[in-house]
Amino acid sequence: MSTARGEFSSRFGFLMAATGSAVGLGNIWGFPTNAASNGGAAFLFTYLILAFVLAYPALMAELIIGRHAKANAVTALSGLASTPGTARIGAGVGFAGMVTVTLILSFYAIVSGWMLAFMTASIADIARLETASNWLTQSGTVRDALFTLIFYVLTIYIVVAGVRNGIEKWSSRLMPSLYLILIALIIYVLTLDGAMDGLRMYLVPDFSRVADPELILSAMGQAFFSLSLGVGTMLIYGSYVSKKENLPAIGGMVTLMDISVAVLAGLLILPAMTVAQLNGIEIYDAQGGLIAGPALIISVLPALFDQMGDAGILVAVAFFTLMSIASLTSSISMLEVPVSYFVEDRGVSRRKAGVLLGAATATVSLIIVWNFGLLFDWVVRLTTEFSQPLLGFFFAVFAGWVWNRNALLAEIKQGHAEAESGLFWRIWPWYIKFVCPLIILAVYIQMIF
Ligand code: PFF
Fold this sequence. Notes:
Blueprint: H1 11-22, H2 25-37, H3 41-69, H4 73-80, H5 84-126, H6 130-137, H7 141-160, H8 163-190, H9 195-203, H10 213-226, H11 233-239, H12 247-278, H13 293-307, H14 309-345, H15 350-370, H16 372-402, H17 405-413, H18 423-448
Helix pairs in contact: 1-8, 1-12, 1-14, 2-10, 2-12, 3-4, 3-10, 3-11, 3-12, 3-16, 3-18, 4-5, 5-6, 5-7, 5-14, 5-15, 5-16, 7-8, 7-14, 7-15, 8-12, 8-14, 9-12, 10-16, 10-18, 11-14, 12-13, 13-14, 14-15, 15-16, 16-18
The structure holds 4-fluoro-L-phenylalanine (PFF).
């Protein structure tokens, strides 16, 4: 059934791939505006706590299950069960993850297409091709469809090339560039007039908001989306990690790197917004909240870049390249989830699986493009606020309750022989058994009431 499975060639390769998956649009447009609208550093504080008490343990559950099973989520979860009924539930969770991640990719690719369109537009600006640039920056279904499809071609190309020659190679090239561009942009924006107001908005805490259910819900959603949890992405990446690696340590590094990009993005986006405001650009929406999400990236910031003259063109190229890289290293991890299943369990070749599944998901994206007002927000909310945490709940239950504790310890001990006496083993099993499922349930119940 299966040929030799892919494996990351080095720890660096895994770290770049997993961080590449985690660091995406979510970090750059989601985190900073969420923070600024929800009590500044108070949100940062809640987010950091949730990232460590909830998202890191959940990430570890996926990585450990994946490396143990050396298989996709469907096979891996059903393999942990000792009764046929539980095995069926495991397979069902794996399938639900596959559907969810495909839907996430279907909206993500549209936004990523905008990033490519704006990047191309800023290159057209350098070449003084004004008409082309205007077309590229004006929303329209033809432009959206075209650039969404280009984005799929890039994603499919990398996934079809395989774990080492595609995912690892491109993540290892792109992620260091992402860090460099991000830091260069922060340094530049912080020198501009008005930037300090943004810093203040971001970093001065309003602690009265810390216990706000709304804040906790959005911090949880943000943490799950940002670490690519609940849909089998981290499980499949974990399955490509060598048995020699110390998983709790490398999972911790991925969490830290993801958080650090989110925190750094805040140092770029919020100062950029207040600089824009000083230049007469509207940064609040009709309800008085900060403009967030796609509108921030494709209206507020481009308006700022436009006012910056020639320097603005270069900043725009850098910024939209940053966004395109962040999107691509995430989208490849999404497509890998169904591809790995069809390659391993259905005996389909990687090329065929990549092309056909990519084309099928692209068709869903095109349906959303043509029914944008009706479908886009609905798909985003359904997948990120509802499915992801719910599936995360099941992953935690499988790691904490279904899987045999000795087998679990034996897996962690590979690459970390003294694990049993370490801090991770003393705390994590309790977390994944009780704390993670209960927090997720509590947040859901709070949401309903
Ligand atoms: N973590 C990505 C981001 O923050 O943009 C989004 C994501 C990637 C979600 C991969 C789910 C996934 F499977």
